[in-house]
Fold each of these.
Amino acid sequence: MTETAETSSTRRPARRRQARGEKRIDQLLRAAGRVFHEKGYAGATTNAIAREAQVSPGTLYQFFPNKEALAIELGRRYNQELRDAHSEALAPGNALLPLDDLIDTVIDPLVAFSVENPAFHTLLEGGDAPEGYAREHDTVSASLVASTQALVQARAPELTDTEAERITQMTFAIFKGGLDLISAHTGAARDAYTTQLKSALRGYLAPLVGTDALTPRPGDA
């Protein structure tokens, strides 16, 4: 069926309005992230977020009824970015990489994500963010842990599930401690702490999973 000129001209303004709406939502969410990071969830207000976004409170309320809705949508976007960042980094085939390359492949996107989105951790660590924010993160975190454990077991198939789980949990504990230092610094200091984090991970993992590249076994995808 051929689209008439009238139908086409009607749809174009609707698409423009939709694009403007999406742009405004992005603007509000970026502003909310900055305010949440600076003031915490409890200290943030919709008026402060509106000022940061350089819009009126009325404009904000056209898209979000309250700061809880802003935090939940911000968390949804953060967690989707986190999934996307590691959809390839935690792929099973990466277990074949030399350990140094594997650490770079997994750690670099996580560090970049955390540095670019400081409010992500501010909301999690504050303990007062909406339940939906933490709940969705718990789901993503469990998936990251499971994928990491699969890489550990692929490199060291002789490990029991319990041993691999303990190694994975310790790996995450080392990472989280290093990430706190990385996030608290900038420039050369941040780079130095990133290097030290990778060295700490290598030192812990090398005796447990080896350092060399692995040869694919028959039947591996």
Amino acid sequence: MASVVWFFQIRRTMIMRMRAVVGLLEDTLRPRDKEYTLLGYLVGFRAVYKLDQPWATRAWILYTMPPGHILFYLPVILLQRRRDRLEVTLRLTAPLPGEAHIYDPGDRAVRRLVERDTAEARARLRERQVVIAGRAYAALYSGEEALSKAERLAHELLARGVDLRRVTLDDRRRALHVSLAPSLETLREALETLKRHARRLAQR
């Protein structure tokens, strides 16, 4: 009985949170067309937005929440410190100055994704640690200009209280990507910051 009550109460809260995230995404990015796919085990969704913006033509979004509505899964969530995760990738209209990945090396999921995404380019990327707003991140980059632009976005997001996990500039895919543990209090400002940075990159 306790697990059933917990399921419905927490599930309702999670659905309301997901709707709030969708509202902020659509209000900020203003897609011309959109397509959503709901996820199963990890509650959340994938989305593809078509954009009519001078700085971006498309956005790919992944939002996941750990299954906190399952009472017996709670110890695992608490032990592993699982958090909501939002990933936004923009396809920009202008070429990028190179490739750069700034990421939290303590986040295993992000670290695995970076390793996968850079497998083909690893030989040509340099590596070092960077400290941004007092937080240590690992950096993989092809040149100083690309790293500088990724650092600037990371710094702006962290200055706004965003729990940032990854920033990527990918010149091969003409993509700007961020991964964060979203807070509804800072998400709108985080998305507006991402938009401003995308505009700057399109105007370079």
Amino acid sequence: MLHPLGYSIHILEQSPSPSRSDHAAGITAQPQVVKYFRRHGFSKDSWSIPCPAVQFLGPKATIKRTIKKPLDMTSWNVLYNQLKGRLESLQKENPGEKARMGAGPTATWSFGRRAMDVAYDGNNVKVEYEDLAQG
């Protein structure tokens, strides 16, 4: 969202690795998520599957109640990987030399970094972080 507006972005990821293990957690994409992904050019079929209704199950998986309300279902991993893929495409658009020459905003991602403090410094955001590998 910030990159097309001309801002350089640097994501600090606490996880030491860019790969994620599957948490197998399905989630409902609320209207704000759907709106965000549409606004930023993600095709709906790349991150969600339609669900025509919600069912509440009782003992022995018997259906106790059904609410017919269409929902968009997804998972944490799908959302994470869609956003990560977008950042990777931004990084390819801004090769190191172009970024160093000030020709456009940069997009970087660092793993193994835990944010410790955030402060505003004029027109910039200052983030203090801990490098988990080196302290």
Amino acid sequence: MVKSVTPPLHLRVADALRGRISRGQLPVGAALPSEAQLCEEFTASRGTVRQALAALRNEGLIGGGQGKPPVVRQAAVAQPFETFLSFTRWAREMGREPGQRTIEVARRGASPVAADALGIDEGAPVVEVLRLRLLDGIPTMLERSSFVEPVGRLLFDFDPDSGSIYEHLLGRGVDLRAARHTIDAIGADAVDAEHLTIAEGAPLLRERRRATDATGARVEYGDDRYRPDLVTFTIDNAQTGRAGQHVLKETS
């Protein structure tokens, strides 16, 4: 039997406050309860509460302080690069409830963009997935994925509404080893607007992804579109031994 591990109290306090901010219970500009109030509410020491508040400051969710209760700076939660391959994992690590609503899983000919990204001929068979991703039930990201056919066919015996596609594929022996990400801004098209409940033309953050296996063979091309009022992206740079070289690290 696997025993569940209760997260440290400072993480649970941070998760609770993060949830209140994202749900609008603590809107942008609102002051958080004082440290004394938080200590009493969560039966926590002042040091524990300060750890929780420091985590929220590092994420850019709160600011201020200096003897006064901190205030909410933004409601969007940050997603680091390392977790791009699993929306489900990232959401759970943030103390949020991930969800998904599958709109389509279909085998069809690769579009010109997908064909270029996957290194296959235009019209070659791929399996396309269109899913709406949710945070605490709120439409947050529209996910478009094109898998090479031998990998994508493994999705026809899987319910994409049940959880992570990547976890399923890894469990079936698919080698998802690396990915290249490109981030830009794009206006919502009619499909985005319908499913993300926003106006057509509204700005979205787009993350395009090309996933490969250990040999460098291309496995998936993704085009994920996030509501910027709900999600931001974070990058930590660490200089390596050679000047001008940087690596991406996960932020917490």
